[in-house]
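# nightly structure sweep
# worker-07 picked up a monomer target from the shared queue
# config: single-sequence mode, recycle default, output format = structure tokens
# input follows
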Amino acid sequence: MNATLDTGASVPRDWLRPLRYLLRTPLLLVHVLIAIPLALAVFNPLARRLSVGGERLDYWMTRWWSGALVRRFGFRIRRIGEPLSGATLFVANHVSWMDIELMHSQRMMCFVAKAEIERWPLVGWLATRAGTIYHQRGSVHSLGVVMQRMTARLGEGMSAGVFPEGSTGAGDNVRTFHARIFQVAADARVPVQPVALCYGKSGKMDLRVPFGARESFFANFVRVLGGPSMDAEVHFLEPLALNDEGRRQIAETARARVAAALGYS
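# output follows
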């Protein structure tokens, strides 16, 4: 799977962009407007006792709402492989602000995300109510607190999702997976499942989706909303167990599997 990027002076003007805004913006607004009453209805202790198809109502609603949000931006969601059931640490490459919603569309899990996301409109609001744990990048104390909370939630049977690269990248490679975060899987005695995320067509990453240099969340949000339709793929890869291998080896193996799934070295 290779990355593609159509930029530069030779790129023709996208005459369909205004039409996409015209079609998608009303659908997005309707989707946002129904979020508040739905959240009030399902994110409460009583709703946790209700289920849909054997899944907790609030979990099911989070998956439905997240999947619908991704589709409002013109993406067709494709899942390859199956997520593990039970408490699992899911580790994925980090491409876009949409990664949390894309993964939530397939499997309910609490996420570890940078603290800035909590202030992002719409995404931060939903992420907080879905149990996201926020980390202040560069703070050793914050990371320690995050790991304690993750271990506790995994021990309670909840799954967790992390982006071991630490931040979003350009999408043209998979950067180093920081090993320390993998310790929570060992402490909670749960498996690790690598996840490869790809936005594009024909299995190729489209580099127009990730953040551009110094691009703000709002600018990226608007740009992607008017972009061409493409696939949003979630590859659930072969799980790993922290047995004899240390967390550094597990981190390297997880990164290698994600990179291989995306066609990177």
